[in-house]
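assembly run, all chains below
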Amino acid sequence: MVSQKNIRDELNIKRQCRSYGLSMWQCPQFLFLVMGIVIIATSALYYFIGSYFGNNMVLVALGDLLITCVLLIISFVVTKNFEKLAEISRMKSEFVGVVTHQLRSPLTNLKWTIEFLTSKEFSGDATRQEEYYSNLRENVRRMVELTDTLLFVSKMEQGLVPFNKKEVSLVEVVNSLISEFKSFALASNVVIDFIYQKNIPLAYIDPSQIKIVIECLIDNAIKYTKNGGRIKIVLEKRDKDIYFEIKDSGVGIPEKDQNFIFQKFFRAENSKKDQVRGSGLGLYIAKSIIEQSKGKIGFTSEINKGTSFHFNLPIK
Amino acid sequence: MKTILFIEDEQTLQKTLGDVLTDNGYKVINALDGETGIELAKTKNPDLVLLDIILPRKSGFDVLRELKENKKTKNIPVIILTNMEEAENVEKMFSLGATTYLVKTYYSLKNILERIKKTLGE
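ok done. output:
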């Protein structure tokens, strides 16, 4: 019974394609079936051409060429889709690696802090004890933050994230985030300039979502501006939109990676080489939020010179 | 008193291991990024360097390379303290001259202290 069920499952192409999360025309199993049908149909056609026009060798050769071309195109599509599946699989493995690594840091912190608190070395000093409990709280917070991000992506993809749009002052959001990033910028030897027009209108967006976007862009700009530098944030009214731009003097995005930068789990080659922390989810989330808010996001970048991310948001 | 330079961008880890080392009679100097780490290694002449790999401003690999290329610092033993354990990275650490490497999550503070003492010949 089990083997019969397995055979049935193997033959259920629709179900298999759904499990890959691909459309039927992108699914290798379905395309193989189509290719098989095309081969049978063309073989029959070829037989008839041979039977009726056997003495016309040019027509037979042309028919043969046409059939070969059709089969080549289908094979090309199948191969391309296998490549896509392999790429998805590679990105997922890389993502598991990144998440594991990011969870390991707070886990090491928890492990060492608990060991310290319970070991003989611990002096018993109340102030010291409070510091270590604060370490524990901070690292639990980091782990919660990471798992929350993963859950957020999952919910966002299912359309389950509520967008409570209202009028928001982006000047206030940016200023508050610059304060939050002050110590990180200082430690990274990075100066942040914020230039904005006076009396800039309010944007119509979910305040918590736009905070996620700007937070991600500022964080990236600082992280990728190695050996110190300047970050310039510009906020202005352009036609019926509010325009936001953040320009860094950092490592830049390699040209070959630029097409994939908003893809889920994608991390540019130089970010991995330079060992910059990141889950490969920030820009993917940022793009989804901006697009769901009826805005547009983009960037320009030059290697070793810097990157500039910008987005437009509608004014109510 | 022997001096240990701890190059690690996680301040909480620096604090915990740093306290254990101080309590055990070592002088600990901390660096939060690769570049500062190299500078301190050159100027403070530590007896041992504890080095993380994922660091701001200069990765642990670059720090290790520079330390081993510099006359002043090339003989200082370097223990890599990281959460990386991919074969190619471990190979790279040793080819650049690391004395040993320890995966943070696998080692307790006590184990790390023992390895430090062993490396310092105590």
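The two ends of chain B are 12 Å apart (CA to CA).

The helical segments of chain B are 11-23, 34-44, 60-69, 87-95, 109-119.

not gonna interpret more than that til we talk
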